[in-house]
Amino acid sequence: MAVIEVGRICVKLSGREAGSKCVIVDIIDNNFVLVTGPKNLSGVKRRRVNISHIEPTDKLVEIQKGASDQDVEAKIKEQGLIEYMKEKVKVKIPVI
User: Fold this and answer.
1) Which residues lie closer than 8 Å to 64 by C-beta, 6 or more apart?
2) Hey, which of 9, 35, 72, 74 would disulfide with 22, CB 3.0 to 4.6 Å?
3) What pTM was computed for the model?
4) Given 3.20.20.140, 2.30.30.30, 3.30.70.100, 2.60.130.10, which CATH number is that of 8-86?
């Protein structure tokens, strides 16, 4: 199981961006993190997200805490993950 940490690539599980990949930029508290796509890459805006609404992947980008969208995008390009970030994931909605 991957952990919640700065630079971790995650998949959004809910909302209009469900199935899109994002990168954790900052950890706000025990329940919330700041994520970004960046928007021009995966369509995810920089925003606060509940950690129960994201699923961490095994991929990690080497970024500083609070890195700008340009820095995040540069690191993603550097590590050759552009196509990986653009891929959409089919999200299974849990039945309650």
Assistant:
1) 6, 71
2) 35
3) 0.91
4) 2.30.30.30
Q: Give the model confidence (pLDDT) of 22-48 as tens digits.
A: 999 999 999 999 999 999 999 999 999
pLDDT computed for residue 91 by the predictor: 80
Residue 90: pLDDT band with limits 50, 70, 90: confident
